[in-house]
Design goal:
303 residues; D-Maltodextrin-Binding Protein, domain 2; elongated; alpha/beta; 12 strands
Length: 303
């Protein structure tokens, strides 16, 4: 081979080797770096461990999406813990959780938390199924019940039964939403006719098992609940349509907070929550997809 052709061939070979090495290097990504989606329309797969905690209302939706993510993305482990919205915000602020699930907005002094709204939860007021004649309560009547002013169902059109009030703890985002948009102030009920339970499921259970009981819970878990009846508030039933246009007031945006910008795995999960699959799961669990909401209704809920 002539010297005139030898040098170009050597340079070509060196370039090919360089490209091969670069390509091989791209396969040595760590768990912090995302890969291509597992399938068209599927999640962006990232390896690693992730913990989310907080809202018991949002938890079933996060868990459903996280379970599907882990099935499609090997090497990702996602743990979803409860505790209530305030706990979720505190945990992500402290760094003990990667994501804080919350029914309420972050608190003053938590400016470093980044808000990712992923769905809208519909809450309902529920009563024990043995309470006849009550299908609707006004906000004024609910204020009287949750302040202890009204203590018998006959005072609001029901039977002669004592009212047993089932509440959530002060760390609950559901309680905060109820106080903010329905009561217009704090619950002040106390005494033997009052119960406080720490999760959505136990509220439903306690209302169903206590004659004369009233409580409130996310409507998703109410689909197959026994012994409880969901009532209207101010003549409006808790439906997707009444929430979308904000004529029914007992609802809240669902937040997944991160401290600063999310890690690669946290971002991948949050993106999957707002994907078509996440929206499908949201509707199946009686949430409203964030994509389906009237922007004006969301704008009305800014704090």
């Amino acid at each position: 081979m002539s010297k005139r052709w030898r040098m170009p061939l050597i340079l070509t070979a060196l370039m090919a080797i360089s490209i091969f090495i670069s390509a091989c290097g791209g396969d040595t990504t760590t768990g912090a770096n995302p890969t291509a989606p597992a399938s068209p329309g599927g999640p962006t797969c990232v390896q690693g461990n992730l913990t989310a905690s907080g809202s018991t209302a949002l938890a079933p939706l996060v868990k459903a999406v996280a379970d599907d993510y882990q099935k499609k993305c090997s090497g990702a482990t996602i743990t979803v813990n409860l505790g209530g919205s305030s706990t979720g915000l505190s945990n992500v602020e402290a760094g003990s959780s990667d994501i804080g699930n919350s029914d309420v907005f972050k608190k003053a002094g938590q400016d470093d938390l980044v808000d990712h709204q992923v769905a809208v939860v519909i809450f309902g007021v529920i009563i024990n199924s043995n309470i006849s004649g009550v299908t609707n309560l006004t906000t004024a009547q609910l204020k009287d019940i949750y302040s202890g002013k009204v203590t018998n169902w006959k005072e609001v059109g029901g039977p002669d039964k004592k009212i047993v009030v089932v509440s959530r703890p002060t760390s609950s985002g559901t309680r905060a939403t109820f106080q903010n948009y329905i009561l217009g102030g704090p619950e002040s009920i106390s005494g033997p006719q009052s119960l406080t339970t720490d999760t959505t499921s136990t509220v439903i259970q306690n209302v169903g098992q206590n004659d004369g009981a009233i409580g409130y819970a996310a409507t998703g878990p109410l689909k197959n609940a026994q012994g409880v009846t969901t009532i209207s508030i101010d003549g409006k039933a808790p439906t997707e349509d009444t929430v979308k246009n904000n004529t029914y007031k007992f609802w809240a945006p669902e937040h997944m907070y991160t401290k600063g910008q999310p890690s690669a795995l946290a971002k991948a999960l949050i993106d999957y929550m707002t994907s078509d699959f996440g929206a499908q799961q949201a509707r199946a669990q009686n949430f409203v997809s964030i994509k389906d909401m009237d922007p004006a209704a969301l704008q009305a809920r800014t704090k």
